[in-house]
What we know:
79% helix, mainly alpha, globular
Amino acid sequence: MRDDHLLSLFVVMAPLSLASIGGATSIYAPMQHDVVDVHGWVTAREFLDLLAISRFIPGPSSILGAFVGMKVAGLAGALVAMVALYLPSSALCYAVGAVWSRHRGKPWVMAIEQGLGPVAAGLIMAGVLSLFQLTGGDPLSAAVILGVAGALTWRRSLHPFALLALGALAFEAAWLLGVGAH
């Protein structure tokens, strides 16, 4: 049974590694779909909690995969999930980097670089929409999610703690005003 979970974790996480154009944020939506909706390894609430922890602690956001793997199969699950999230994309980057450096500045290389920008933006937006759906779709959550997305688009250097604090203040203010649930 445990080996089945480890293999399933690898099969779920490895393709996400190759789809993580734009960083880990771009794979939140498909990861959530696979681990919550398809496999039922974690609940929607647990996924949000693990996501919040992964965003709060220092290091890459892809640590979310390790948290899911830990929940599914302990330490072995965390290791399998991280190998699956890093190995395929790292191998691909190494191979593409070798080709890229030989052809830098050529029109086809520049066209590919420009074409990947909208793909990354779309994947990140899918992650934002997925988070919105997990919150139950209430207007306050939508406002906070859009506000954070807008703030990070406007100024990428904003510290995550500042955004976390502003989001918490928004929810506390709504609770005090009797607008939202606590």
